[in-house]
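Blackboard transcription, Thursday session:
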Amino acid sequence: MTTTTGPRPAKRKPRALSLASPQRRMSAILANSALVVVGVSFLLPLVWLVLAAFDPNATYQTQIPQTVTLDNFAAVLTPELTFIPMLNSLIISVGTATVTIVAALLAAYPLSRYQSRFNKPFMYTVLFGTSLPITAIMVPVYLLFVQMNLLDSVPGTILFMAASALPIAIFMTKNFMDSVPISLEEAAWMDGASAMRALGSIVVPLMRPGIAVVAIFVFFQAWGNFFVPFILLLSPSKQPAAISIYTFFGQYGSIAYGELAAFSLIYAVPVMVLYVVVSRGIGGSFALAGAVKG
Amino acid sequence: MKKRAAVAISVIAVGSLLGIAGCTSTPSDSSEKTIKVSYIKTDAFTALDDLFTKVKPEFEAANPGVTVELDPIAATDDDYKTKLALSHRSAETAPDVFYEDQGNVRSDAEAGYLLALDDYVAEWEDWSEFTDAAKQAGAGDDGKIYSVSLGTDTRAIWYNKTVMTNAGIDVPWEPQSWDDILVAARKIKASDPSVVPFNLYAGTGTGEGSNMQGFYELLYGTDLGGDALYDSESNKWVVGSDGFTESLEFLKTIYDEGLALTPAQALDPNIWKSVFGEMFPDAKLGGTVEGSYTPSFWVEGGSFEWPEYATEMGATAFPTKDGQAPGGVSMSGGWTLAVGSKSENPQLAFDFMAQALSFENALEYDNVNAQIAVRKDVAADDSYLGANPFVGAVTDLVEVTHFRPSTSIYNQISVEVQKASEAVITGKMSPAEAAASYDAAVTSIAGDDMVIEK
Amino acid sequence: MTAEVISTAQGAQSERRPGPQRSGRRSALKKISRFVRMIPLVPAIIIMVVFLAGPIIWSFYGSLTNAALSGANAANSSFIGFDNYVKLFNDPVFPQSLWITIVFTLASAVISQNVLGLGIALVVTRANKKLATIVSSTVVGAWILPEIVAAFVCYAYFSQDGTLNQILALVGLTGPNWLYTFPLLAVILANLWRGTAFSLLVYQAALNDVPPEISEAAMIDGAGGAKRLFFVTVPMIKNTITTNLMLITLQTLSVFTLIYVMTSGGPGNDSTTLPILAYKEAFRFGNIGYGTAIATILLVIGAIFSIIYIRAARPSKD
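(Written on the board underneath:)
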């Protein structure tokens, strides 16, 4: 997995080399050993996950499997346990990302392009919304869903997840949009294009990497969300993988460690792969587009 | 002007809000009728799923145009009850027929989730086969019938004869007092420290089960007997009783001395699976309090097949504290089937339920799931009496059994009892402190005038 | 990648965009067009009003009722004023849970994630580049995992016969069942493991903007490593530290799944943070009104942090 480690090393390297004093070397050794300790500590819990998934006799211990098996995977790769919940996760995550992106793009356009006395209070309110603990409103959200007959409804769940992602998404999108020069649109306006056409044909294509960042960000949150579907989706046929894995754990977890690990891997791998692909593809802009101002 | 724009937007927003709220309930197609059936199905409990899977095609064949939608929920009892309560709130999600703990009937009836069945049972010829106790188990605070019992149970001490014999304890083992249990448990521990001598569930991990298979056996065997939790004369909750503290003290003794499971194990919601699946078959557990349905896990086709249980295991009554009359304690509960009050087809729902509870189906279910029959015709059937070697022993316990208080706030009180036993076994509170904290909680839930000092 | 939140948040206040009206296109339809051009905001506003603002208002109202999941109050809940709050402040579990929430947040986020994230970000600039990539990938890996998977992994790691005790056994120690004996410590470490990546990414980005010349100039002046860190680097990224602290505080306040899976808040209430308590009271014990009161308090705490965060995120010039 590529991360943003050491971006822009070119700027720094020549100086670093020229300063390669004994003191500098010492600090490099210290730095390396510190990193090894941190790396190993962070890696250890993950090692169990991978080893246990391939171990026919897995326990909670981290151990090298005596024989490597795919039985754990075969056992959990059933429609009930894996395929339907994974499909549900996909529907919910893609749905949430789509709704969020469309709404955020539309909202960001006037915020970014026009000045209005309305903008500032709106952005403050939205900023306030980004930091609300969503966990805290699940009880009233449940009651609201009962009232609106949206309980156990996938579209309803998608709308709520989109609502909770929107404040952040609007911010990110507006920021990306701000960096698209307005001059191109002005030319289009002169030609008589409407604002919406300018948005669709000029702005959106130019900020594609930014949209990808926001979409992936929302997708990740929806994919990993457990609590929201846990409360709002009741039928097993609609529940995402986060719930089926929890049910599985509750039922078999204390016995079927290997299958639990295999199941966890199957569920985690798509986002892992997506992260690698996207961070490679978009590179720096994906990781930290727009410098973090200090 | 800008202000007006903002106002306009909010008007649109609110309008659409109402629009969304107004148009989401879609009337279901009336030509096709669907009966939704919710119940628990786990790897360790498939008897009900088997029953409904069998009844579904029969019922659909007899009622053309009707679809039975089975909705098995894989969850612990507590998670299932939460899920069920969540689904009851909305007509869209509420099931037509569902599996309901007898202990929740009154509370859920009062909440308006259950359909009163009096008119339906009146025309049901099988209703007369149900015992009066079973009929009463499905009644609400208003005296109406809200659910029909699937079967009942009693609770006994189940002990491993090999473990007892190895520790030099004679079998059949018949403890006459709490001290007899301690003596035996200490003997077992001394003879083989790797064996867990005697398990009594406690804490919130196993939910209602920890009371039914643990604390209540103790509490109902103290001086106040059947009135130890809830005074039947004044209809008030008992606070400040010696029996409550004594029961907690007994729990503290067996947990502190390491005679029971470790507290960490006791709080694991799945620990009972290890008890049935590993500890008893491996002779690593002396005894535990469990329900009359215990053999259903070990029989052929059960979740933890162990045919030797018939000779390896023994069952005996849980003793009263000092052996006072009636000499034994048991608890009875059981599950029922109920019809949702929001059901669009209540008659069909009831018919489905009645068919699931017919003589043949009840007999099959009681035998497979080792339930104590609530239908007289089933109870008299030879195959029921011979279903497992313990049917006689556990049915005898009906004479010393107790039922949980039939009030709608029982469930909240139950949680407080679980919290008290958890506080004691984890060493957070002394028995006296936990009892005081329980008293305060009960007073707050029930109200000052609904508790009685004993 | 959540780091953009910080940058975008800080960019939010600067309305530097020249609107098209500046280009001199002023027509008679100006007033109407001003309204029309705000229409694209409507879908986002509706969604947020219905699904965020609605529940928040409902939360305040619901906490003043005795709504329940079962029993008479489920059928007809009634307005009971501030009774839930009175009960809450008299319930010994509430202060305990509040305290646990504070300890959990301070220890796992404000101290551990923040310091470790900054530490790693500083160290990787001096370390072997390959090693740095591998280590930060590992740290980020724990963060990319779906929360429930991370929770299972930590459950396995801290259980009686789990990996942590295996390691302790290597040096001759018999470890306890961490989830039972030290539940709060276990969930704090788990949250540290899972959440450090966020701070790491934020600080890596911020440090990239610190011109290397500055710290090296200080080094030539003879300033030691610690001095350079505290007198040169930290002041330069001060605002990033503030915003990062606020964000991770708010994220940690609402952690539910990790704790729910690892300990369910137990044993007793030893790891019951406010989100767990609200869930248990509302859904497990069926006291919807009471659970909502707890949730409302959590919302208020979150709102206070939000306001501090918004103030801190203002452009540095004011």
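Lecturer's comment: Chain A has two domains: 17-69, 72-287.
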